[in-house]
Specification:
single chain, binds 2-acetamido-2-deoxy-beta-D-glucopyranose, cytokine, 213 residues, leukemia inhibitory factor receptor binding, 4_helix_cytokine-like_core, mainly alpha, growth factor activity, cytokine activity, 5% strand, 5 helices
Length: 213
């Protein structure tokens, strides 16, 4: 796995001390307006597609995180435990488990991937600016975003068709816009590290709820 060039320099460790956590913005997202759109929203194999997308995201999350770390250079590559502590980001709570109702699971999934989609947008924008030659990392970020958006559209269809849910409350993390290089890199690594944990949990909970291939 290559990064296509060196990082943009070492940021003083002291910067850590200046970090502050800001509250997370929350708002209700209209999935499809005030009702589910008519026929043609769902493909016949939507459950199978959803299964595959979650399994694919779970299978590629760790590599994405590792490559991300490598491409940020020092101190990130050697101090990941300290710098990328996921308690520094507020993910949507994922409180469902195998015994939860399927509807609850689907809503929790939607909230998780809506958050992830927004976070990936920030991470990708920052990496395009900070590590423009890290082609493989950028490819992986683009692929992950594409899969996430396909997954969201499939979840939207399942929620509408099966449960008549067309509105879900979502929260997005903080925007990284206007932050310094160190903080942008750190926010990305915190999100991606937490993502590795949460996607494994999501796969464990969701996959048994969808019919096997
Ligand atoms: C599983 O989730 C449901 C809510 O979806 C909750 O009531 C129950 O206590 C949870 N069970 C465990 C073992 O965490
Ligand atoms: C995903 O995030 C982008 C911003 O990066 C946003 O424009 C888009 O509407 C989001 N898609 C969904 C399905 O939430
Ligand atoms: C960055 O994150 C914020 C908050 O999560 C979100 O509203 C915004 O759409 C994201 N920006 C991009 C380019 O994805
Ligand atoms: C990204 O997706 C394309 C097409 O789906 C695939 O050919 C490529 O290998 C993927 N790249 C990575 C790094 O996953
Ligand atoms: C579901 O996922 C597949 C595969 O990514 C995608 O082609 C499709 O547009 C998605 N949405 C729906 C509603 O089927
Ligand atoms: C998720 O990915 C991890 C790491 O690759 C793997 O060990 C685990 O079995 C996967 N979980 C599911 C439910 O596929």
């Amino acid at each position: 796995m290559g990064c296509g060039g060196e990082g943009t320099g070492v940021v003083p460790f002291v910067a850590l001390l200046l970090l502050q956590r800001r509250p997370v913005a929350g708002r209700a997202l209209l999935v499809t307006g005030s009702s589910c759109p008519g026929h043609g929203l769902c493909r016949s194999n939507v459950q199978e597609q959803t299964r595959r997308q979650v399994a694919l995201l779970n299978a590629t999350a760790q590599d994405l995180f590792s490559l991300y770390l490598k491409c940020q250079g020092e101190p990130f590559s050697s101090e990941a435990d300290k710098l990328c502590n996921p308690s520094g980001v507020v993910f949507p709570p994922f409180r469902v488990n195998r015994t939860s109702e399927r509807k609850e699971v689907m809503v929790a999934m939607y909230q998780l991937f809506a958050f992830l989609n927004a976070s990936l947008g920030n991470i990708t924008r920052d990496q395009e600016e900070l590590n423009p030659t890290a082609k493989e990392l950028l490819d992986r970020l683009h692929n992950t975003t594409k899969t996430t958006r396909g997954l969201i559209s499939n979840l939207t269809c399942l929620l509408c068709k099966n449960y008549n849910i067309f509105q879900v409350d979502v929260s997005y993390g903080e925007s990284s816009k206007g932050k310094g290089t160190f903080r942008k890199k750190q926010q990305g690594c915190q999100v991606l590290r937490k993502y590795v944990q949460v996607i494994a949990q999501a796969a464990r909970v969701l996959l048994p709820h969808l019919s096997p291939p």
